[in-house]
Structure formats: C-alpha cells, structure tokens
Write a structure and sequence with these properties.
By secondary structure, the chain is mainly α. It is 79% helix and 0% strand. It contains 16 helices and no strands. The chain is globular and about 55 Å long. The two termini are 18 Å apart. Pfam families: ATG22. Keywords: Membrane, Transmembrane, Transmembrane helix, Transport.
Length: 426
C-alpha cells in the first residue's frame, strides 16, 4: 500500500489554546528521570547481575529473565487499561502516576539487598519495579495531547525520548565509578549501590512533573467507584473500538514491532556479554553509543515526523530494525556490534517517538488516558510478553542466542506489513 495517504496537519486557528513551555519541559524531564530505571534495571546492569550473580551464570538464567520480563508486562497489560480509564473518569491521573512511580522507585531501592541464589526475591522485586515503571507510562503518555498541539506531537514526543536517552547517559556517567569494576567479588557492593543511584535519580528528577502539571477535573453526572467506572469504560471501549479502525490497525502493528524492540532492550547486554564476550567496560562504551544515537534519532526523527507524518517515519524505522537484526546475526566481532548498536539506537528513539505521536493523533482527547492504557497496556505491554519469553526459551533450548535473535525478524516484518494498512488522512 502506498504511503501517500498521510496528509499534513493544518495550521491551528489563531484562538487555539496556548501551551506552556514550562509544562513541556517538566513533562520531558520525567522521561529524563525514568530512563535511569530503564537503562540500569531493564537493559544493562541488573539483567547481567541477575544472570551472573543471582543465577550464578547458569544457562537457565536467560529463560528466567525472559519470564520475569513477560510476567511484569502481563500484569501491566491487565491493569493498565482499567486504571487508564479510571484516571480519565476520576480526573486523578497525576495520583495514579505518582503511585506507580513510587512503587518502581521503592522496589528498585530494595534490589540493593539481593545477592546470590535469591532468585525468587530478585525476580519479585524486578517484576514489581517494572510494573510500576511501565504502568506509570500509561498516565505519563496520556499528558501529551494536553501539553502541545497536534501539529507538534512528533516534535514534543521526540524531545521526551531524547531527554530520556540523555538521562540514561547521565545515569551511566554518574554510576561509572560504581560499575566499572564489573562483577568481580570485591565490586559487587558497588554494583548494588548503583541500584540505589538509579532509584534516587528517578525520584529526584520526576518531582518537577508533579509540581508543574495539573489534572483537569471532568464533569460527571453520577458518582461511582472509579474502579467500577474503569471497568465500565474499558467494556465500552472494547465494544466501540470498531468505530476506530485506524486505531485498531495501528495498535495491532504496534503489538508486533514493539515486541521486537522490548525484547532487544531486555537482552542486549546479555547477548553482548555472552555471545560476543564483551567485557563490562566494553559494555559501558556500547550503551553510551546506543544512548547517544538514540538521542539523535529521537530529535531528528521527531522533526521528520512532523514533516512527513508518523506513519512514514515508523515504516522507515522498521526497515532499519530489520537491517539491525540481520546485521547482528552475521556479526561476530565487537567492532561490528558497535555499528549494530549505532543503528539500533537511531531506530529505537525514532520508532518509539513516532509511535507515541501517531497514537496521540488517532486518540480522541476525552479518552486519552483510557486509550493510552490500551496502547501502553493491552498492546504495548502484552506485546512484550511473547518476545522475551520466546527469545529466552530458544536461547536456552538451542544453546545459542544468535539463533534466538532471528526470531525477532517475525515481529518486525509483521509489524511493517500491518502499519502499511493504517490510513491517516483526516
């Protein structure tokens, strides 16, 4: 299907509501804050700590880690749509965001006390922390239509992801003295201190959002439990979702390609360390490369999204992802894997930013948190249930992560085929 179906957003009227740069900055600063959790706990340090220390380096560590990621995403997929709808009904979006944020921060802090053979405790803490992190994104993303105009969704969304990857870089820099010693016995205490650092970073830099943004109280003719209202709204959304065919097509496409992205995020450090024998110092350099190019990808493709449209941008990034998977499979040197990381960083920031922009464009404003609950929850988090589990299972059974990485081609190619079916004209 041709890509010419996407049209430019018209210039807003003169009396369009002005948007506060302060609110936009506070909103992007939350991305700056929470990516400390993403890079340290989901992507880099804790996955290696879980497999090499908690699981003592056993091959089953891959399967256990993939299962932990899948379970946390499954829980998020179940609760996010209901709580998103409930926050729309109650007008208490910020309270929901605060609760999930504090759960993530608290459980991340408690990871300091984990050690060898504490598989159950280490798994439970990660699952709860990731539920808090991913669940909070439902309410965070739903603020996008309130802080900027439709014609700037791509740009502002890109700024948010760029700030997030910048936060990841700052977190890596701040934790560098703690993690540079790797997983040698004498350095394990410093590794555990890095979990406290990530939690503190998340807490401190998330404060401006809660001070700057205000919830809009909806006018309600009836007063019922917000959870009851949430379930009722979700049922209504499911029954009426056929009225939003483009939204359904996009969410289905997002389900597949986001699965591939989140699986790469979950296993990148383990793959580099175990398959290509990266030292811990080389892993630090690798992730600095990824985060730097992700910043560039978020900003540049954020502007491109507003010029050519979110759909076309997503198509471009998915083609890059397919290239990344093939290149990673045939790569057997560390130098080439740095190039893989460069392209992965560019496409990661760009595809996530463009997806959030397209979701905001297709979502009715009065159902923003509810629909973003399906975007981040039923489709976003549920998508991450399958990929990490399949990757971990194939890696464990075949004894090869290189074979497992080929499974990700299915998710990106199906996502590409489905996104081409999305029509975005007014």
């Amino acid at each position: 299907m041709p890509l010419s179906s996407e049209t430019a957003e018209p210039v807003p009227l003169q009396n369009e509501e002005p948007y506060s740069k302060r609110n936009i900055f506070a909103w992007t600063l939350f991305d700056f804050a929470n990516t400390s959790f993403s890079v340290m706990i989901v992507t880099f340090v804790y996955p290696l700590y879980f497999k090499n220390i908690i699981c003592a380096g056993h091959a089953i560590g891959d399967a256990l880690w993939g299962t932990n990621v899948s379970i946390s995403m499954l829980i998020g997929a179940v609760v996010a749509p209901v709580l998103g709808a409930a926050s729309d009904y109650s007008g208490r979006r910020k309270r929901f965001l605060l609760a999930f944020t504090l759960i993530s921060i608290l459980c991340t802090s408690l990871m300091f006390f984990t050690s060898a053979d504490m598989i159950l405790i280490g798994s439970v803490l990660f699952i709860l922390a990731n539920v808090g992190f991913e669940g909070g994104l439902v309410f965070y993303d739903a603020y996008l239509p309130e802080i900027t105009s439709k014609r700037s969704y791509g740009r502002v969304s890109g700024y948010g992801f760029a700030m997030g990857y910048l936060g990841a870089l700052v977190t890596l820099a701040a934790s560098f003295p703690l993690i540079i010693g790797g997983f040698e016995p004498e350095n394990l205490l410093n590794i555990r201190y890095s979990f406290l650092l990530a939690a503190g970073f998340f807490f401190f830099f998330s404060i401006p959002l809660f001070l700057a943004l205000r919830d809009k109280k909806p006018a309600r003719a009836e007063h019922i439990s917000f959870l009851k209202a949430g379930f009722r709204e979700v049922r209504a959304t499911l029954s009426n979702i056929r009225n939003y065919p483009n939204l359904v097509r996009f969410l289905t496409a997002f389900f597949f390609y986001n699965d591939g992205i989140l699986t790469i995020i979950a296993f990148a450090s383990i793959y580099a360390a175990n398959t290509l024998n990266f030292s811990f110092q080389e892993l630090v350099i690798f992730f600095i490369t990824v985060q730097t190019t992700a910043i560039l990808g978020s900003v540049i493709f954020g502007v491109i999204t507003d010029k050519i449209g979110a759909k076309r941008t997503i198509v471009i990034t998915l083609l890059i992802w397919i290239f990344v998977i093939l290149l990673a499979y045939f790569t057997d040197t560390k130098e080439m894997f740095y190039i893989v990381g460069l392209f992965a960083g560019i496409s990661m920031g760009a595809s996530q930013s463009a997806s959030r922009s397209l979701m905001a464009r297709l979502t009715p404003a009065e159902h923003s948190a509810e629909f973003f609950g399906f975007y981040d929850g039923s489709f976003g988090k549920a998508s991450a249930i399958v990929g990490p589990w399949i990757f971990g299972l194939i890696s464990t059974l075949a004894g090869s992560q290189r074979i497992a990485i080929l499974s990700l081609l299915l998710f990106f190619t199906v996502g590409l085929w489905l996104i081409l079916k999305v029509r975005t004209e007014k």
